[in-house]
Structure to design on (231 residues):
């Protein structure tokens, strides 16, 4: 696999949050980006050559209103709204509740950012606003196993697969909450291949990226609601 084009420096990383609330673990993959920053690598007393190869990152915490503490564990201080957020390099979408329906303005934001970003990353039920915005049309994607039967019926234009995470071009989707970390590990190994040394150091320190994309045989059995959803 050839090395991808390096991302800009500083890299603009956006995290879209929904006013209905987002589970904190859905956006936890940003911590792995934080571990790639020069300041973090330096704090780990790593050799200067490794520190120098780290990243500089600008974080954009975005919601529809552009202000306030977003409802989630601990909360985030919002520094941008969907109307004043600049074009991003990467957009990470955490999962709202499964019944969430994005407003027209959120849909437009997602569509506009999709045109600009190098990576459009979706965790757990973040697939919901992506589906309604048309981002996943005719793409291969995954979602929480318990929701896949419903999604296959409601969004047949998407090729849904039972994977921990999957990539289709610049769109990355993950299954349930914890799979977002595995997805981020896969992203780092593929998109930051030119920084392989620090990527593997970070993944080793965080103990992430060892499970692969495939679930063990019968992984969808015993999930509450799965059997009902299949009927």
């Amino acid at each position: 696999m050839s090395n991808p084009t390096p991302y800009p420096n500083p890299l603009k990383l956006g995290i879209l949050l929904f006013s209905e609330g987002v589970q904190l673990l859905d956006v936890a993959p940003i911590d792995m980006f934080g571990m790639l920053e020069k300041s973090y690598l330096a704090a780990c007393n790593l050799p200067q050559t490794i520190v120098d190869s780290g990243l500089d990152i600008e974080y954009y915490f975005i919601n529809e209103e552009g202000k306030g503490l977003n409802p989630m564990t601990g909360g985030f201080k919002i520094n941008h709204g969907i109307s004043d957020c600049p074009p991003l390099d990467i957009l990470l979408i955490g999962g709202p509740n499964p019944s969430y329906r994005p407003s027209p303005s959120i849909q437009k934001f997602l569509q506009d950012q999709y045109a600009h970003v190098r990576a459009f990353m979706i965790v757990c039920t973040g697939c919901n606003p992506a589906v309604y915005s048309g981002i996943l049309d005719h793409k291969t994607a995954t979602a929480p196993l318990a929701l896949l039967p419903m999604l296959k019926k409601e969004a047949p234009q998407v090729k849904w697969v039972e994977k921990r995470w999957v990539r289709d071009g610049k769109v990355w989707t993950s299954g349930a909450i914890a799979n977002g970390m595995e997805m981020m590990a896969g992203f780092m190994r593929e998109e930051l291949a030119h920084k392989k040394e620090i990527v593997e150091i970070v993944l080793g320190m965080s103990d992430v990226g060892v499970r692969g994309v495939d679930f063990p045989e019968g992984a969808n059995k015993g999930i509450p609601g799965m059997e009902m959803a299949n009927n």
User: Anything to note?
Assistant: The chain is about 30% helix and 15% strand. Residues 224-231 have pLDDT under 50 and may be disordered.
